[in-house]
UniProtKB/TrEMBL annotation:
Name of this protein: Transposase, Ptta/En/Spm, plant
Keyword Coiled coil: yes
Bias-annotated ranges (Polar residues): 40-52
Coiled coil: 418-445
Biased composition annotated in UniProt, kind: Low complexity: 86-106
Species lineage: Eukaryota, Viridiplantae, Streptophyta, Embryophyta, Tracheophyta
Length: 467
């Protein structure tokens, strides 16, 4: 991985509107706006938040539960990680990575392009930092990122080290396109761990050239996302090309658009291997056990929660996030199972409000979601989304694939203390500035009196040397 660049001293442009600070790491850039969800005081969940839950479900009009993307599939665990590291690693691709990022051409199949067309056409309002260390707000599509000259898109992070805001949405689409570019990371390698470091380093270089992370774990988060999006792309290829009665040789003779034949052969060989077929059967059975789909769509739980926090001015816990992401656009639950669970969560949340419990938005094994749904599975925490696992939230253990080495509760508490100190320091600085301005005004008044006496009485008075 390339060494970290020097942290810039930034002059903030007047039109910058969004906060770029995480509450879990020291500030790397100045705030372009006074509001930030990371410093919101703890409070109960009043009726305001309850109304926002219904409004949020209505706002997600483009998110429907008809997608096979189910709630319980939100996980940090990569099913491919169980595969052999060495399988197909000898099949080195014939393509090479081009470091000229402006000339990237993705090997997307047509159906994948259709799936992504809306996201790739969307404009994202993001903060961009230039070589002149000035932050500006720009509207960008994913393809525009490649054409940024001497600028980087700033990615915000919440206190759980998850990407949030428009920047996180933009990099999500961009990483999806990068993951489908067979020149960046070829499809020959069935396991992410078997991908040679040279390809991963090239991907890191592409990311570093175009994005500025407001978190020390930003690159790790981005690479984890790239890994998962590559897996999703491979799964889409399989869905489009391998049917129930498909024959290996037939599939091999119809390679997907943009994928070299040698890489396609490796993919097809793996899909028709006994190991892959067994995994497919397990996944099919697991999907049958999923009780309810979520309606988040491409908007991550972290981003959706962040939007709700901006709207309410309160911390949003995973119970509220669960409710919003399991309702249709008309405010009804996606199915009866989701309704039973959601209403039970709402009931517990109401009881917590009635008892005066303070809501800090922190997950726990005994919160509403924990009480209703029970123990978490390995690799993810319900209602939290990508990048959060039980060991990171509930214990001091290191979360696999992430950089945390301390309990998240401790980290957040320490971060809150630091933020409080920074707030006090700002108050002191403002008071000192005010006192300095008053001294300057007093000195100016005295100087004017001296001048008046000299002019009217002809008396030469000693010069004022300062207060």
């Amino acid at each position: 991985m390339a060494p970290k660049s020097k942290r810039p001293k930034v002059v903030v442009a007047p039109n910058t509107l969004r906060s770029i600070f995480s509450n879990t790491t020291p500030p790397l850039l100045p705030k372009p706006t006074p509001h930030s969800t990371s410093t919101m005081p703890g409070s109960n969940l009043p009726q305001l938040q309850r109304s926002v839950l219904n409004k949020a479900a209505l706002a997600d009009s483009s998110h429907t539960p008809t997608s096979p993307h189910l709630y319980d599939s939100h996980s940090n665990r990569d099913p491919e990680s169980h595969e052999s590291n060495n399988e197909n690693s000898s099949h080195m691709p014939t393509t090479s990575h081009n470091s000229d990022s402006s000339s990237h051409s993705t090997g997307n199949i047509e159906s994948h392009q259709r799936d992504k067309v809306n996201s790739s056409r969307k404009y994202w309002t993001v903060n961009v930092i230039g070589e002149d260390e000035v932050i500006t707000e720009e509207k960008l599509k994913s393809k525009d990122v490649w054409n940024l000259q001497g600028k980087k898109v700033i990615i915000e992070f919440n206190r759980f080290q998850q990407g949030i805001g428009e920047g996180a949405g933009l990099i999500g689409v961009w990483l999806g396109e990068l993951a489908s570019d067979v020149k960046v990371i070829p499809m020959n390698f069935t396991d992410w761990r078997s991908v040679p470091q040279m390809y991963k380093k090239n991907a890191v270089g592409d990311i570093e050239r175009h994005f500025y992370f407001q978190s020390d774990v930003g690159m790790s988060w981005a690479m984890d996302s790239l890994r998962d999006k590559r897996k999703e792309f491979r799964n889409r290829l399989k869905t489009d090309y391998v049917k129930i009665n498909s024959k290996r040789d037939e599939v091999m003779c119809t390679p997907a658009t943009g994928i070299p034949q040698d890489q396609w052969n490796s993919l097809v060989d793996y899909w028709f291997s006994p190991k892959s077929k067994a995994m497919t059967e397990r996944n099919t059975q697991n999907r049958k056990k999923l009780r309810f789909p979520h309606t988040g769509g491409s908007n991550s739980i972290a981003r959706r929660t962040h939007e709700m926090e901006l709207e309410t001015g309160q911390h949003i816990g995973r119970g509220a996030a669960f409710i919003v992401t399991h309702k249709n656009k008309d405010g009804s639950y996606v199915n009866d199972d989701a309704k039973v669970v959601g209403e039970e969560i709402e009931k517990i949340m109401d009881e917590e409000i009635a008892s005066g419990q303070v809501n800090d938005g922190m997950p726990s094994t005994d919160d509403a979601v924990g009480q209703v749904l029970g123990k978490e599975h390995n690799g993810r925490v319900r209602g939290m989304g990508f990048g959060v696992c039980p060991s990171k939230v509930f214990s001091p253990s290191i979360c696999r694939g992430r950089g945390a080495t301390t309990p998240l509760h401790s980290a957040v508490n320490n971060s809150s203390e630091v933020q409080s100190l920074k707030t006090e320091l700002l108050k002191v600085n403002k008071r000192l500035e005010k006192e300095q301005a008053e001294r300057e005004r007093e000195q100016s008044r005295i100087s004017n009196v001296f001048k008046y006496l000299e002019q009217t009485l002809g008396i030469q008075l000693p010069q004022e040397t300062g207060m």
